Amino acid sequence: MSATPPDELAATGAEAHFRRLExxxxxxxxxxxxxxxxxxxxxxxxxxxxxVDEGSFHAANAAHGTLYFKMLDxxxxxxxxxxxxxxxxxxxxxxxxxxxxxxxxxxxxxGRWISGRRRVLIxxxxxxxxxxEEAARGTGTFLRSHIALSSLAGYAG
Length: 157
Description:
Elements: H1 11-27, E1 36-42, E2 45-52, H2 65-81, E3 87-98, E4 105-115, E5 120-128, E6 134-148, H3 153-156
Antiparallel strand pairs: 1-2, 2-4, 3-6, 4-5, 5-6
InterPro entries: HotDog_dom_sf, Thioestr_dom
Pfam family, one: 4HBT
Protein name: PaaI family thioesterase
């Protein structure tokens, strides 16, 4: 059973908001460290395609947990922020479950909004690893901040 996203965005403005969020992701300095790209696939959903390479491996030759967290948090965050057009959200908590190691190759993190409409939103995400199997899943809590999205250069264009 899936939740119905709030009618916070007019259909005509939603696509522009999604494209600005994608630009915001690409503008973040931290994302220069990752071979990744985002797509807001609809209200309350986001997909990040990323490359797992040896630069993200721990000593046992699989992806370090920091990569899992980064991609899960971002996918859930952008899924939630796709429903909020005025403010930047902040992650206040994130619960992560590792289900299998990721080796080198292409992976996908998919996020979806679960609940919340005003101040706090909840979203989850999962990663499909290079082997085609689920590698991790997590759930985040996101708080509406005082930061206007329009004040962020990456969002404003």
